[in-house]
Each structure stands twice: as C-alpha cells, then as structure tokens.
Amino acid sequence: MKLSVIIPIFNVEKYVEKCVNSLLNNDLKINEYEIIIVDDGSQDSSLFIVNELAKQNSSIKIISQKNKGLGGARNTGINNSIGDYLLFLDSDDWCLPNTLKNCITIATKHNLEILEFAAQGITSNGKIVFNSANTSKERILTGVAYYNSIRYLNSACNKLYKRSFLVNNNLLFLEKIYIEDFEFNTRVFYCAKRVMATDFLVAQFLQSENSITRNNDFSKKEKVINDFIHIIQITNDLYKIQKSSFDESSKLFFQERLSFLVTTLFFQLLKYKTTYSYKNKIKKQIKLNGLLYVDCFIYDKNKDLFRKLIIKNFFLFRLIQPFYNIIY
Prior knowledge:
Layout lengths: L2 E7 L6 H9 L8 E7 L6 H11 L3 E5 L4 H11 L5 E4 L4 E3 L4 H10 L4 E9 L5 E5 L10 H5 L11 E4 H6 L11 H12 L3 E12 L11 H25 L5 H24 L4 H13 L12 H9 L6 H12 L1
Parallel strand pairs: 1-2, 1-4, 2-3, 6-9
Antiparallel strand pairs: 4-8, 5-9, 6-7, 6-8
C-alpha cells in the first residue's frame, strides 16, 4: 500500500463527494492506496454519502467516532493507516487529476520523510486567490535547514508524510484546538532529516466565505485566542527543553516560529476588533509568562512589517483600530 489519504468529515455534505471522487478518479491503482474517512460525529448526510461511495469502492474505509475535532480525527486516521505515505485532505478540498502517482514516485525515489507540493486556494465560484509553489531543486534537507531556506505553506494538506516517520517519532496532532497544523509541523520539521519541495501542483483548497473572522460569536474567537496562547506555550516549552543542544539554525527555527505565532495572535486581535485594553491584557499575560517573542524577524514580509511597526510600538493599536473597523 503506497498511500493512505486521511479525510476527516464533520457536517460537510456539500463538499465531501467531490473530495473523495478526486482521489477515486486519480492515477494510482486501486491496490496502491486507501481512503480513510473519519466521521467525527456528523449530524447531516455526510456519513450517508460516503457510505454510498464505499459500497462501490473497496479502497474506502470509514471510521465513525465521537467528535474529537480535526486533529483527533486525523490521529484516528494515522492509527488506522497502512500506507507508506500519508496525505491529509480536508473534506472541502480536492486533488487535481493525474497527480498522486507522481508525488509518490518522488517521495519513494528519494526516501523522503516529507514532500511538500504546490497547492492553490480557490473560491466557490472558481476564482484562484493564491498559488503556492516552490522547489528545493531535488536537494534533500533536514527539516530545520529546509524551513530556514524554503518558503511554503504552514498547512498539513500540501505535504506527503512518511507514515513510519510519524509513528516512530510519536508525531500526532493536538486535539480540539485551532492552528493544529502549525503546531504539528513545528515538531515534524524539527525531527525530520529528509525533506524536499516540488513545484508540482497537486491540490486545490476551498476558501470559505464563512471564516471565523466574519463570525459574530466572540466565544469562538476567544477560543482561537486562547489556543494561540496555548500553542505559543507548548512551542516555547519544546524550545527550552531542546535549547542546550541547539545549533544556530535550530535556534532560528524556533525563534522565528514563536515570533510568527505571537505576531499572528495580535493580528487576529486586530481583525477581531477587540478593544485596546483587551489587547494590552493579552500582551501583559504572555509577557508575564516569558512568551512575548517579537524580536526575531519573520519570513512573511507583511507579518514582519506588522511586528516591527505595530507590535513593537504597541500604542499604535489605538490609532489603527478605528481605521481597520471602517475598512473591514
């Protein structure tokens, strides 16, 4: 079995059939791959749809469980997979035709632990809003060296992961938490020894018009904020534990990741239109815990500018928030 594709589903009746068919109609032979669909407590017709597909396709395996969130569903998929490589695919995303065989060929040829591939973000009406592609030109790098030199997506869904590498290093997702991909990939890249990038386009990711930033339920936004702080703490704990054995590239890896998390947290607070006093409360909280990482540059140029101009001159939040509220 060359590939296990893990698809968590939760109330996705509009999208899941297209996602699964993009795999069934691809270019791997039926005995070369499996599709593991983890139903995470769906209450719509998602489970019925995939059960109907499974009746006609022996490559589909369906597992139902009580809701554990995206990370928990992916972990169930990992623990029940048998493929040499794993592909995580969200149920509203899809693979392009004739792409899977080439990815597996590249990963197998170079005995990779991670292969990153190109992906596009696309709206429901077919407009491409981003195109992420890069290549390491067949150079095989450690995860740290790779991250410090190759810019790609923070997603878990534009990568092939070698299953034995994840299992042997006990690399699983955090459960019931936002930003699980970023936290997972911090540990994954830190452990990895054989990573490569290809600019071969494999997948398209649906960009939802119903993002949490447009949702009026502040309790959901507050969970995102708390999850950010939690992940910053977890990442910092790993950084401190490993610090004694670090070289400069490993130090840069962790400091940039932490700086990115802190900067993105405050950018989210701006998007959520929180008050200045609330932002300041969060700042004091993470500073007290030694988590205010804002001195290291960030590879994302826009985020880095936000870090240098706004976060390091915190009073400017008072000035820019009213304008942000008007524009957005």
